[in-house]
Write a structure and sequence with these properties.
7-stranded mixed beta sheet; alpha+beta; 5-stranded mixed beta sheet; 23 strands; BirA Bifunctional Protein, domain 2; 514 residues
Length: 514
């Protein structure tokens, strides 16, 4: 099945089973804005809990913060967002569609990479065990020609990005004969910069109102509170401040479902270090954050680092953690070495000292910062995409199952009476009443037991407990495993410990520190 078709099925599945809805749908929706349904909000909260516990609970030198969405407008001038928070946009004159010029070029480069991998894949099938991949990549004329073309375009692209050369970005699109996906033509406008911040007004009258912005990132709320947090928590450098919060960007090219939205949620941690030690911490946090993602169990090969071709104005190193989505490897988290830019800028614009006195060195300095910035919504999408599975069973039937990590699943346990009579329903509700204090449980008595299993498979419930007539005799139940569909008999008294051992997040967190 084409990956595009798989992605369409995932989007449809999210709506049908209460994970994600188009926002304001009864009014024909609002582009690039989505609401999370009953299953989605549970999964989203579990993702945030996994991140918060991993970052704050597991680290003695990381503390939390919840800063306001509205902040003084000078903050965004100091941070560079007013002048430099832009996307290079280009329009196709025939389709009237607008695109990010950098994304068009990156997608072109990705196609060249795919072309090389297809050549390698075909050769591997042809030669079997005797295939020497390294030698093939170094000697095959078609691979070398494509690689040379790819490298030439990439070098030119990186140079244009870093020089902010909009004319050359357009010329690369022309020279590479990149067409509009809608019209199929190469009738492009010039490339223009577009600022992504939402503006609004704060004040009781139009004359006295102050223009403010909806924050385009949560990081600045951490920086302006750096000394407040440091003094009240008595933290010593190195230490970090973590925050989860809403962010707003006026994305013109918003697409790919919840991957790129105008209102989204970030999980960010700013880690303050001594100048000169930033690259050591940059590598440590890269390793830790990649491990956090890989422990979700979707295959280490589906994650990769992608170093930035163009560094942001504040950074001296930057990389993305990318996940293999149905539409290719895409960023789910960024790790950046921000130097001392942010604290220095806020000291300059506010006139307030933002330096830290280091008692071990006996001097003051402006700390450098390592940032880890993860998108809740993008990680949500990566988890759904990694978990979505269509299976053909031995009897020829098919099932759709979300193989979610049990620790993150919205519903940990479904309790199903085999029939509604003979006291089975009452016994099932009694079990739910006991376990709901420990787990998110769902009671379901409608339709056949097979249909109920399929419903639970579709929302990713890892375990189903069936109450039958034997339960009333010996107080045992049947537990069904979602992924294997195997079943086993256990006592009702052991259910709490059994489900806990399979779904408690602490077992996932322990693997991060082993």
């Amino acid at each position: 099945m084409a990956q595009e078709d798989v992605f369409k099925k995932i989007v449809s599945h999210c709506k049908e089973y209460g994970f994600v809805f188009p926002s304001s749908e009864i009014y024909d929706g609002l582009a690039a804005v989505y609401d999370y349904g009953s299953m989605g909000v549970e999964l989203k909260n579990n993702i945030k809990q996994y991140w918060w516990n991993a970052m704050v609970r597991l680290h003695d030198n990381v503390v939390g913060l919840d800063s306001a969405i509205f902040m003084h407008p000078t903050i965004w001038k100091a941070s560079g967002h007013v002048d430099a928070f832009n996307d290079p946009l280009i329009d196709n004159k025939d389709s009237k569609k607008r695109y990010r010029a950098d994304v068009l070029i990156e997608e072109y480069l990705a196609k060249l990479d795919e072309k090389i991998e297809k050549e390698v894949g075909k050769a591997a099938k042809r030669f079997g065990d005797s295939f020497d991949e390294k030698k093939f990549r170094e000697t095959n004329p078609r691979v070398l020609e494509t690689l040379s073309k790819r490298n030439d375009v990439h070098t030119r692209y990186a140079k244009a990005l870093n020089a902010n050369d909009l004319n050359d970005l357009r010329q690369i699109i022309i020279d590479c004969e990149i067409v509009c996906p809608i019209s199929g033509t190469r009738n492009w406008t010039e490339v223009r910069q577009f600022n992504l911040m939402f503006k609004t007004e704060m004040g009781s009258t139009s004359d006295g109102a102050m223009q403010v912005y909806l924050r385009p990132e949560t990081a600045q709320g951490i920086f302006v509170n750096f000394l407040n947090v440091q003094k009240t928590t008595r933290m010593k450098v190195p230490f970090g401040i973590a925050q989860i919060g809403k962010t707003f960007r006026n994305e013109i090219v918003a697409r790919q479902f919840i991957f790129r939205m105008r209102e989204f949620e970030q999980m960010e941690m700013q880690f303050f270090v001594r100048p000169g030690e930033e690259m050591k911490w940059f590598e440590q946090w890269k390793s830790f954050r990649l491990r956090w993602h890989q422990l979700l169990g979707f295959g280490n090969e589906n994650y990769q680092f992608h170093d930035h071709d163009k560094l942001a104005h504040y950074a001296n190193a930057a990389t993305d953690i990318e996940f293999l989505m149905p539409f290719g490897f895409k960023e789910v988290e960024g790790i950046h070495s921000r130097t001392d830019f942010d604290l220095s800028q806020h000291e300059k614009f506010s006139g307030k000292k933002m330096q830290y006195f280091d008692p071990d060195l006996g001097k003051s300095y402006t700390p450098y910062v390592i940032e880890t910035s993860a998108g809740v919504d993008r990680i949500f999408l990566s988890i759904i995409a990694g978990a979505y599975t269509e299976e053909t069973l031995e009897d020829g039937e098919t099932r759709v199952v979300l193989k979610l990590p049990a620790m993150l699943a919205p519903i940990k346990l479904a309790v199903l009476p085999l029939v509604k009579k003979d006291g089975l329903a009452e016994k099932a509700r009694e079990i739910v009443a006991d376990l709901k204090f420990s787990f998110s449980c769902q009671y379901d008595e409608k339709d056949s037991i097979g249909k109920r299993y399929r419903r639970q498979d579709a929302i990713g419930t890892p375990f189903c407990v069936t109450i039958d007539h034997q339960t009333l005799q010996d107080n045992t139940v049947t537990i069904r495993y979602r992924d294997t569909m195997e079943q086993e008999r256990v006592t009702v008294d052991s259910l709490n410990d059994f489900i806990s051992s399979k779904t408690d997040m602490k077992y996932l967190l322990k693997q991060l520190v082993d």
